[in-house]
Amino acid sequence: MKYKFIELEIKNHIAEVGLARTASLNAISLEFASEIADVFRKLGRMDDVRAIILASKARIFCAGLDLKEAGGHFKPTAKGVIDSIEKSQPLFDCCNAIEDCPKPVIAAVHSRCIGGGLDMISACDIRLCTEDATFCLKEAAIGFVADMGVLQRLPHIIGEGFTRQMAYTAAEYPARVVEKMGLVNEIYKDQDALMNAARKMAAEIAQNAPLGVRATKEVLNYSRYVNVKDGMAMAIQKNMVLTTSEDLKEAITAFIERRPPNFKGQ
Prior knowledge:
Elements lengths: L5 E6 L2 E6 L10 H15 L6 E6 L10 H7 L4 H10 L1 H12 L4 E5 L2 E3 L1 H7 L3 E5 L3 E3 L13 H20 L2 E3 H7 L4 E3 L2 H16 L3 H14 L4 H15 L3 H12 L9
Parallel strand pairs: 2-3, 3-4, 4-6, 5-7, 6-9
Antiparallel strand pairs: 1-2, 7-8
Helix pairs in contact: 1-4, 5-6, 9-10
C-alpha cells in the first residue's frame, strides 16, 4: 500500500494514516482525496487492523479544499457544471470512506483544521486535538456550501445551533471553544502528547473483541438516521450473530480462567 500523499504505518493492530501532502498543507486535491478513500477502504478489509488514527504530517492538519485545482475544473456551462460534479466525486468519497470504514477512526488534530479538514474529522468516530488547534468551516466566506458531508454529520456531533454558528460565521474556533461544543473529546498540550494519547486510546480499542467493536460502530452509524426501536432491532440482529462467535467463547473462557482474553476476530 504505497501512496503519494499518505504515510501509512500498521503496528500492533493499529493503523496510523498520516496526511502528507505537506507542501500544500494537506489541501485536498482530487488525487489526494482518492488516496484517502482508497486507504480507508483497504484498511477496513484488513483483519489485522482493529483501530485507525488519522493525523497530519504537515505543519497544520488541513488547509481545506485545493481551490487552485477546483477553480481550474469549473466551466460556466451546464455541461461544464455536470462534468465538474462528476470529477469531484473523490472529494465526497473520501469522507464517506472514513465513516463507512468498519474500524473505529480517531482523528488527531493539530494547528488549523479548515473546511474539508473539518469534513474529514466529522466522519471520524473520535476527535482529539492540541491546545493550539483551531477549526473552521470556511465555505460561506468564499461563496460555497460545504458539500463533503460536514453539514449532515456535524449536527449529530455538536448540535444544530453550534453547526449553524460555525457554518454561517466561517470563523476559526479555538480548541477550548469546540471542546465545549462537543467536537473534541480531549485537548493535549502538544503534538507528542496528542499522538501518545491517540495511540493509547487506539490500543484500548484494539484489545477488545474486533467483531463486537465493528458491530457497535455499524449500529451507532445506523442509529443516527432511524428511531430508537429500529436501532435496537439492528443491535439485536447483530447480537444474534455474535453469540456464535469464537471471540464470545474466548471472553467467557478467559473470565472463568481469570486471564485477559486473546481475541482473534472470529
